[in-house]
Amino acid sequence: MILPGTDPQAVFEAARRIRAGELVGFPTETVYGLGADASSDQAVAGIFAAKGRPADHPLIVHVAHIAQVADYASSVPSFADRLMQAFWPGPLTVILPRREGIAFAAAGGQNSIGLRCPAHPVALAFLKACNIGVAGPSANRFGRVSPTTAQHVQQEFGDELLVLDGGPCALGIESSIVDCTRGRPVLLRPGVLTRAQLEAACGEPVLDKDDFQAAGDTPRASGTLQAHYAPQAKVRLMDAGALQIALDLLGADAANIAVYARAVLRVKSARVLYRRMPDDALATAHQLFAVLREFDAQGARLIWIETPPAGNEWEGVRDRLGRAAAS
Q1: Which residues sit opposite 303 in a β-bridge?
Q2: Three-state DSSP class for 250?
Q3: Is 0.85 surpassed by the pTM of this model?
Q4: Are 184 and 249 part of one and the same domain?
Q5: pLDDT tens-digit series, residues 93-113
Q6: Which helix (H) or strand (E) holds 27?
Q7: Could you tell me if 13 and 100 lie in one domain?
Q8: Which domain does 300 fall in, by range?
């Protein structure tokens, strides 16, 4: 069932279900999450089962404030603290050393744990009412397109799941993930926060995981598998010229194809779904997953997408589309 997140009684009921070991759908500024009590391995197992997600693929634990970090992390490097002070509440996940005996299942069995404080009023009210950390991956079947509305969550899991409705997600793609377990900040997953913003906040360069192997293996993290975020239709990335050539070759016979591009293209078939991609990276991130879901709903079998620009502000969108096209 979908309940309004602005209703205190709905928030109270959602928190009651979390404390009882049940699952709840909840909004954040990035995407909707599928929540469970992070401290209960049994409750967390329900997330893995519902999503069809491998149990060794870690979840992000959502907290209401920085003070809760000490409940889950055994230590916090100074640069990680600076990142949290700068961007919490907000679209940043930090990976920290995990306290022994805490949230083993939510961490995917690793000695590290991902933590985030979301910047959404409904999420914060929900987390405060829970008064515990809530493990919350995106509320969709594993590997598929993330949900950005309560209705998307209901489409994935049906009416039995309680979903707090917080409206469409403001940002639309998942948080940036920075590994803080190896003495230097390492970006594992880009989001809407640019590398320059992260570096300015933590006071040192933010490294790529492929460039920093000195301190051991990279921790596994949510949403970092090569193939992820995929619609039912097959996604292909092309530059504007290749898109136009492909459309011209098919001409009026083109069907069951969806196109998402910044370029203004000539489309000769009424059976091609054509949506303009915004010129702005943040606007594209906001609508990206909703557009992919819309194409699926309208029966597209192929989705042709113009490759995003190379600028740093587009890094998060490029990451999501690259993984969607790898599926």
Answers
A1: 235, 258
A2: helix
A3: yes
A4: no
A5: 999 999 999 999 999 999 999
A6: none
A7: yes
A8: 234-325
